[in-house]
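Please predict the structure of the following assembly.
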Amino acid sequence: MRDASKAMRDASRATRDPLTERRLPVIEMFGPTLQGEGRVIGLKTMFVRLAGCDYACVWCDTKYAWEPGQLARSEPLAPAAIVARLEAAAGGCRRVTLSGGNPALHDLAPLVEQLKARGWRTHMETQGSLAPAWLAEIDSATFSPKPPSSGMRTDWAVLAQALALCRDPDLKVVVFDEDDYAYAVDVHGRFPEVPLTLQVGNRVGEDTAATLLERLNRLADRALGDSRLGDVRVLPQMHVLIWGNRRGV
Amino acid sequence: MRDASKAMRDASRATRDPLTERRLPVIEMFGPTLQGEGRVIGLKTMFVRLAGCDYACVWCDTKYAWEPGQLARSEPLAPAAIVARLEAAAGGCRRVTLSGGNPALHDLAPLVEQLKARGWRTHMETQGSLAPAWLAEIDSATFSPKPPSSGMRTDWAVLAQALALCRDPDLKVVVFDEDDYAYAVDVHGRFPEVPLTLQVGNRVGEDTAATLLERLNRLADRALGDSRLGDVRVLPQMHVLIWGNRRGV
């Protein structure tokens, strides 16, 4: 039975068109731009944003990646087509950030494999609510478990599993209020060995560079005086400081 | 002769007071604060700024570390005293940045040894104009060779030697003008394997967060469109954005 099943799978595979199989729902691709967040802040990178999310954070700054109707507006692209588009736009850049939504919803193994074969460095952004085995193939990943103000709840066991799979993980917690700050301290206590960034919360349509820097100032003061956060980063979203709350940067 | 010389050195060492030997000229110690620059941006760290510099960059933002008369105003501290002061102020922080001036002017081997023995992570900031052997003991170091607008000239052979000694080096070039930008491209071409950050120039007493962000915007656009800079970071001095051009942050 197992042999027959395998033969069927092989036959099926042989007749698939490599340009149509495993298409991924692409919301947007852009770059080169600067990575705006976390430990990789400032790095020149291309972005691929995939549709769909298992969360629905109230303050999500990329709701266009997952709100009702958005999946229908995404473009289904095969991995080879994504790589071709990246290389047409990238100039000398060979770094790509896979984001969402939650890109871990999709099977990105074929895309990552093709990117790596062509010399790309792959970075992923996800909340760590899913732990697919192919996380082990990504060069680095930022896991941003969502604090109370998001309205979401964290499955700590799955997050631990995802972090353990990834070869070069870091953590990022967005902080809007006191409860979020306490959550960040909790995250650091649970995973003290994983680099942690506290990121100032950003209200799309309300915040300006000035209000973000003012809030960054307060968050920095708070974290600098807190001995529970011995080893931590505090950062703004740099792309918002430079370009404002615009899409596609 | 060599044995006699060694015996003399040993005798000399045995009679030294460990609290007075190898004192280092400390201009200021502060923290915990946030690292404002380069690949380590945002990290919570203590700072030790040592007096003296073999350069005299026209736009140096820490001239109080090396201008005439400043050495006399520094405090000579033994390594053990520096470590004690750090630990009294650090809270849970165990990361320290050794800066200047050019801290590579001094023999920092005893200080680094004591810091490491007590669980500190050491990071150094230097222009790479000197390559003392103890660079190999530092956990990480940012080398910032100075571009034409500084008025200084780079000894590329010494810089290469310093980079090779350090176990985890990165490069940072401050960009004020077109010549500086061309210099940064040259640096990347010479050391393509070392992570490079382009940092927006900052005129102390003139620049504000707004003018720095405007210049960051232009520098980012320039670097993003330049295929010679395939893998690069572009960053501001974050501490200046948060706290302005103040001393001791």
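Chain B has one domain: 2-243. The helical segments of chain B are 2-15, 70-73, 79-89, 109-117, 156-165, 178-190, 209-224, 238-243.
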